[in-house]
Amino acid sequence: MSDHSAHGHAAEHEHPTWKQYKWVALWLTLITIVEVWVYYTPFRESSLFAPALLVMSAVKFTIVVLFYMHLKYDHWIFRRLFTGSLFIATATLFALMFLFRKLTLG
Amino acid sequence: MATAALEHDANAGHGEHQHYTSTGLEHRKIAIWALIGSECMLFASLISTYLIYKGRSRVGPWPHDWGCKTSNVIGKTAEAVQAAGCAAADVMKPILDIPVTSQSTFVLLMSSLAMVLALEGVENAGKPGYDKWYKGSKFWLAMTAIMGATFLGYQSYEFTSFVHEGLTIRTNLFGSSFFTLTGFHGTHVAVGVLWLMTMLFIDMKRGLKGATDVLLVDICALYWHFVDVVWIAIFTLIYLIQ
Amino acid sequence: MATTAAPAPAYAGSHAAGGEQTGLWSWLATVDHKRIGTLYLWTALFFFCVGGIEAFIMRLQLMQPNGQVVSAEVFNQLFTMHGTTMIFLVVMPLSAAFFNFLIPLQIGARDVAFPRLNAFSYWVYLFGGLFMTLPILFNSAPNGGWFGYAPLTTMQFSGGLNIDFWVLGLQILGVSSLAAAFNFITTIINMRAPGMSLMRMPIFTWMSFVVQFLLVLAFPAITIALFFLQFDRFFGTQFYEIAAGADPLLWQHLFWVFGHPEVYILILPAFGLASEILPTFSKKPLFGYNVMVYSGIMIGFLGFGVWAHHMFAVGMGATADTIFSMATMLIGIPTGVKIFNWVATMWGGNLKFTVPMKFAVALVALFTIGGISGVMHSSPPTDLQQTDTYFIVAHFHYVLFGGSIMGIMGGIYFYYPKMVGRYMSETLGNWHFWLFFIGMNMTFFPMHFSGMLGMPRRIYTYDAGQGWDTFNLWSSIGVFIQGLGLVIFVYNFLKSRKSGAVAPNDAWGAGTLEWSIPSPPPEYNFAQLPVVTSRYPLWDLKHPEMTADLTHSAPDQMVITDSHAVPVHEETERKTAHELGIPMPFPTIKPLFAALFMVLMVGALVLVHAISMQVAVAVMITCAALFIGTIYGWLTSPLE
């Protein structure tokens, strides 16, 4: 850890490490296996199937962005640029789903 | 004033003129994050369209269900379709092939690991321990590009077999929106592979090293990971959820 | 002697006195943001005349019942191209002219973050604009309305090349806007002078900053909608094929997801210009700076949540109508706040009604009228009565002509001395202003009435005796008056370059950084980067009593990382960049060629319908290879 960050970046921020990279890869693999596995179980017919999958993919999405794209360790401007855009994109997607009656309130 | 300037330059340890920035960040990194923000909206529009048109096709083949070439019968199994009066020769398989796509998804996820290791290699180029081939940037850049190309191989296999099963971009709304969405993603992967190969070429030619090269690989990596997270969303929303 | 007389360096010959290069090549290969801004300005003014002529012909046709000037088909092309031209080829690029020219000057930078990308944006705009405009000479210009509603624009209902030019032209222009937006976001975040925190940026820069985010997030939606249409037209996909189960509202939604933020893309830069002009001629700092900034951000943010108010007539259901109606009313609040702040800025000020000031005040008044009729349509029942009538035409012309064009015209008169070094004639400017102001109201105010009396938009002729005749006559006469104003403006604009009164650095006694450097500015803008300690650094220097109430930071308390920066001062000397040791980007022709090949690559798709798929693919592949080759050449050549 220390000998990685000691080489004098312009900004002395923390940096994800080898170990973290491998853990992230492991988690990504495990979650993907679970996702595909539940697809072949009776759980697929459950009403919780879609929400469960959405949560799992959101977790994968988040850890890639935080660690591989090192947004967790980077300047706040990058975080703002990404989360702001992602928020508007997701909100538009949800609004369109409501407008085309793919989602209903309650 | 002049002496202060000299001291400043001497302390910073660089001879050439450095452009002033207000944040200390690199221009190109700000631009790539703005680009990624824009791409979020691009893929949100594509995914929205796919979801809006889901279940609205008038004819098969269907993504998750069995169908019939001669009628609009839909069923969970081949037997159910046949029981509803479809001749065995006219039965259409569900299009999406989860086992194959799971493999390509895994390959793309692992390419992101290779990408961070490539960046790690450039950041530490010339340091003790990083001279081994399996820790250097050349190996991992090559691995990332190969895995990206493998993903593209899977995708062209997938597209070809769909066409053989009777689904083209003109067949129905599912075909149009599916091929356009995954095709857009595939094009992004292809651009990424080209970019990675350019980086690899530079690395072979003169070796990637130092702050400027870290930036070069960093923005390439950010783009690559973004293409990966888009696939994470597509895999769940399009392939797994019915 | 011989030893001391060193040979003149190679660059000296090609540099005129102020370090400026001249000649055609210097413009084709320029990467200087000021020159690119000038190119944008000239090109957009050219298209303004084109769009104006289109409007003129339409009004000739509609002047009397049963007009016979043009056919219905030509009329379709005219209103489509008038809308498309004025939005994408005039107001957006005029704003871009100011982004280019002003943003680096206002934030105390020497150029934009990516000078060559900036040149690329301009050339893509020029070629894309010509691609879309030239077909009108061959009677095959786009004819489906500026919004191009699919399925009307699919092959089934719009065969022929007309819509092909529109779809591909808009794709091309999107590339230009997006490239410029990434550039300016980076420039504003990263190139502000020492001490210029975000809350010290001039309001024009702030509004431009918001606009860049609108561009970045709005354009992808129309890009995708256009790709679907393109695929439908060229490759036989079914996105807008109703028989295949497609939804006719898909295009409308995707289009307006882009289209409404686009409205703010068109108006916010003009708001920014007015916010520079009003304080200068009121001799007072802008009233409520912080609230102005926050309301600008708020307008941008809410702008993404109101798109479906363009679609109340399609029957989205009570819930959707209610939500979008309320969001639309909500967005009136930050806009109204701006109006009051401008009025409060003038209140008690030492007002001086120059031509730019007149245009800025006219913006406040005329935009208010358009804004209020906008709030009227936010109510779905009212909107149902007004949709697709001339009332809507009146509304958005008050907003876009009364708002955007008036603000931009004010901006041109205001910044002309900075761009050219000479003032525009005030006498001619006054004629221009009053002809525009009177003509504009005479054209668009009667449209409220013809609209309320039921006259639909986009009809090419009408019968007498429906109560519309007088109003249409008034509208047409108004357009002739505006046309006269435009001629006077163009004459003034051209003539003043040589004969206008010479302008000093600080042409109007304004307070922001761009007025501290020579007019026109040298290529490097600032010989030394200024250290900014408040929002009106130049007033701090010349009229400290005017900025006494603003927060200042003492220079010795600031962390200045650039050792070359000095306190704000007026620069009078003109040395070359080389003499000062400032590295400037090399001129390069590569962005022009990259733009040309990209436009040819995209545009060649027209050949699918014009000649054959094989020819189109061959041309596209060739141009794609040339484009990628140019990009590699560009990226591997050093910037400076």
Description:
The complex is a heterotrimer of chains A (106), B (242) and C (640). Chain A has four helices and no strands. Chain A has helices at 2-5, 18-39, 49-68, 76-99. Helix content of chain B is 67%, strand content 3%. Chain B is mostly helical. Chain C contains 20 helices and two strands. The model of chain C is unreliable at 1-19 (pLDDT under 50). The two termini of chain C are 34 Å apart. Chain C has helices at residues 10-14, 24-28, 33-62, 72-107, 115-133, 162-190, 203-235, 249-282, 289-302, 318-346, 355-377, 380-386, 390-420, 426-452, 469-499, 537-542, 577-580, 590-603, 606-610, 613-636; strands at 530-531, 566-567. Chain C has a two-stranded parallel sheet. Chains in contact: A-B, A-C, B-C. Chain A binds chain C through residues 77, 84-85, 88-89, 91-92, 95-96, 98-100, 105, and chain C through 189, 213, 216-217, 221, 247, 249, 253, 257, 304-305, 308, 316, 319-320.
In short:
The complex is a heterotrimer of chains A (106), B (242) and C (640). With 242 residues, chain B is mainly alpha-helical. Chain B has helices at residues 2-12, 27-53, 78-83, 98-123, 137-164, 173-206, 210-240; strands at 66-68, 74-75, 91-92.
The helix/strand class of chain A is mainly alpha
Largest sheet: number of strands, sense, barrel closure of chain C:
2 strands, parallel
What's the helix-strand series of chain C? HHHHHHHHHHHHHHHEHEHHHH
Shape of chain A: flat
Number of strands of chain C: 2
Mean pLDDT of chain A: 85
Roughly what percent helix of chain C? 55-70%
Order of helices and strands of chain A: HHHH
Determine the fraction of residues in helical runs of chain A and give it as a percent range: 55-70%
Count of DSSP H/I helices of chain C: 20
Task: Give the overall silhouette of chain C.
Answer: globular
Q: Strand-residue fraction of chain A?
A: under 5%
Spans of chain A of at least 5 consecutive residues whose pLDDT stays below 50 are 1-12
N- to C-terminal distance of chain C:
34 Å
Query: How many β-strands of chain A, per DSSP?
Result: 0
